[in-house]
Write a structure and sequence with these properties.
Blueprint: E1 7-11, H1 17-31, H2 38-45, H3 51-60, E2 61-68, E3 72-82, E4 92-100, H4 109-123, E5 128-134, H5 138-143, E6 147-155, E7 161-170
Parallel strand pairs: 4-5
Antiparallel strand pairs: 1-2, 2-3, 3-4, 5-7, 6-7
Organism: Shewanella cyperi
Keywords: Acyltransferase, Transferase
Protein name: GNAT family N-acetyltransferase
């Protein structure tokens, strides 16, 4: 019987960029097909991360890792907390890039990442978190205490447009 390894959430570095990108692609392809058309999924997940993505990773991302002493660490989740977005209200932060490996879905990794980001936001003096949820993740965020505000259209930095739900949680 294989022993469960401990989940650790740590600050990401630029060196984690490719692992986070691969995690993002795997998470989208595993979690979103029942809610978005194949053509959209293909364009959403194609290519490689931009040079600017490494800077965002180093500045705002945290990763969840499971480690085996003999095998190094395995990135199984990510979360991004943006406290510098000028479009947000004072005291508000933006939660983004909550991705978990397909093998981690339903195992509490996503909840651990959201809980971690909420604590980080509180420590930074934020009073409320905002996020743009993919359609497949709305119920997950409801279970985390987020409420729906409205349906919207998300425009990704790569030019992809997809339906989403803007949600908020008071901290």
């Amino acid at each position: 019987m294989q022993r469960e390894t401990e989940l650790k959430i740590i600050k990401a570095t630029a060196e984690d960029t490719q692992a986070i990108w691969n995690l993002r692609v795997a998470s989208i392809l595993a979690g979103c097909p029942s809610h978005y058309p194949d053509e959209l999924l293909a364009s959403w997940t194609e290519g490689q991360p931009s040079a600017g993505f490494s800077e965002v990773v180093a500045g705002h991302f945290y990763i969840a890792c499971r480690s085996e002493r003999s095998q190094g660490s395995l990135v199984v989740g990510s979360v991004m907390l943006d406290c510098d977005n000028t479009e947000l209200l004072p005291g508000e932060g933006q939660l983004e890039a909550v991705f978990v490996a397909p093998s981690e879905m339903g195992r509490g990794t996503g909840l651990a990442l959201v809980t971690f980001a909420e604590a980080l936001a509180r420590n930074k003096g934020l009073k409320r978190l905002r996020l743009e949820s993919t359609l497949n993740a709305i119920d997950f965020y409801r279970r985390c205490g987020f409420g729906e505000e409205r349906m919207a259209n998300y425009q990704s930095p790569r030019g992809i447009s997809l339906d989403c739900c803007i949600m908020y949680k008071n901290l």
